[in-house]
Amino acid sequence: MKVQESAAVQNWKAFWNFHLGNWHGRWTRYQPNGELSETFLSSRSFHSDPEKKNISQINQYFYTDGQHGEKRWSYSLEDHCKENGFMHPASDYMRGLAFQDGSAAWLVPEAIPEQYFPMELFLANKDIRFSVGMLYGLNGELQRTACIREMRLGLNHSIWSDAVELIPAWNVGNQWRGITQIIAADLARSRIQDALYMETQFDNKEYFFPDNIILRCPAKLTLNQQFTIDAIWLESRNKLKTIRASYGVDSKLIDVKLQNLSR
Question: Are 31 and 9 in contact (CB under 8 A)?
């Protein structure tokens, strides 16, 4: 009789079944006002043992002045697979929540006073993925944002442009319908038929990155006030993906929602 896997193990496998391999792309960082801070080529490689119980990650950064940076981490099922997500070796308070199609969130389960609050949201389509990230400082102020556009090594053609400057605001439109998948803070999973939700709190900032990518996030995190952080990707004229992390008035994560929509 097959033993039912725990929600934590299912979450672990959802991420590593998709993201293993070599991802090459461009990393671009921005100031809170949208001004470009820096951009450089990058490589993120993930490799595992046959059972996917031990993972190694190597990040490489290739700067325009010829410098080269590198970071390495190791994950293990035993040490990093937690009941509220898998732990990032670089930060014991960050957790990963993953959907089967490669969409995922690295996030902090609870906003705490005098603690940095980073987040990275992934959306993907087979051998193409991107992530948007942001970092809030100890005072809750947004310090920077980032957009990382990647493709698997060996892909002959990338859909990503070389553009790095923010682009003028554009309207996503309406009449989008599809499926919303939900991962709750305890990793319980559900799905519903849904329409596009575009409501944002009044103080959210919008960043319109190249290649039809949008980030929506608060200008400042205020404790005991609910907030959401969204990544939106117009993949094609009739295909839209969104991923949203929602936090409650207690500053704790409620859930992460993934929408795959069409019109």
Answer: no
